[in-house]
Amino acid sequence: MRRQYGRVAARQLGLSLVELMVASALGLILMAGLVQIFVASKQSFVLSQGLANVQESGRQGAMILAREIRNADYWGCISRVSSVQNNLNPGSAGSILDFSRGLEIYVDTDSNNAIVDGSHVIVMRGVTGDPVVTVEKVPAADSASLHVTDASQFDVGDVLLVSDCEDATIFQVSKANENGNDLVVHNTGGQMVPGNAVKSMQKKYTNNAKVFRPTMVRYSIQMDDAGQRSLVLERALTANNTGGDATTVGDPVELVAEIRDMRTLLGVDTDDDGNVDVWREPPAPTDADAAEVLAQTLSVKVSLLARSRDDNVNDGAVPYCFPGWLDCADAATGLQTPADSGLYRAYTFTSTIRNRIGSNG
Asked: Does the global pTM surpass 0.70?
């Protein structure tokens, strides 16, 4: 009995070459399956992450611009910019302090700036927030000063707007709170830029008038030295500016990364009935009808092109349709093929300028 058990045990001490090859083949098959599952899972993760990046960038950019466009051309209790007198020295139509245009949209064609050529630029002017101070005493109409509740909040060179809800005047501060007298002086001359063309207001503002800070903001797509494109905000230095120069803008502030392009359409009210009659491309700043078209614009349609942060999201270049209002079938109708395998998506929205609705007439 022991001899028989020993012979059986001896026959089970090793594997034959055939058995070893079969086991190795099965192991390789299992390993190949696991590698395939890992690669597919990794690609799925990269695609999901890229889609999340694109959605985050597109939605954030759309949310910021939609809110800003709704609030464009806001001048406090004055319904339209046409009621505002600008006492600043006149500049060209492209001046950042051209407050006659509460909204300005154009195509960038300047190859010397950081803005992506061919992308659209949105400029908005108006006042933000509540009034800073109120007028405390009634000055003479031709006076070069306002007596306000607190002049210490202003500096030489600040650009301000005073309004009583019937009229408004924009001016630049030449002196403020000298000797603690709560006077804001708006005289001509001095070292401010652009300076005041006239010192007198168009009316004698009473003590119910409020003083606001007008502002200009510019949204554009700019490219940094590394080639990354972003939605960028620039703001005019109408307050706390260096040397009293309010005709320049501050440093660009990146709002949303990987926004590759921005395009717009203007909803224009051509018959002054308070409704959009035609959608059209923005005019060039030098067009004869540019000011009229922009003043008649009630809504703005914006399309943002967002891209994933990683290059190799897709297996190859995947065509995309941009701007979002196009019905793309081929390259002739707007279908574009990128130079990389990143993920591209167009985010399109329409925003109505609420300060222009119901204020016609």
From this structure: yes
- The sign of the CA dihedral 5, 10, 11, 12 is positive
Higher pLDDT, 290 or 24: 290
User: 236 with 246: CB under 8 angstroms?
Assistant: yes
The DSSP line for 247-314 is SSB---EEEEETEEEEEEEEEE-SSSSSS--EEEPPPPTTSTTHHHHHHTEEEEEEEEEEE-SSS-SS
Structure tokens at 12: 């089970």
- Report the C-alpha gap between 220 and 187 in whole angstroms: 35
Residue 251, CB-side half-sphere exposure with 13 Å CA sphere: 3
Cα 260 versus chain centre, distance: 12
pLDDT confidence of 2, banded at 50, 70, 90?
A: low
Q: Hunting for tokens 């609030």 — which residue is that?
A: 71
Q: 140-171 burial, b for 16+ CB within 10 Å, e for fewer?
A: eeebbbbbbeebebbebbbbbbbbbeebbbbb
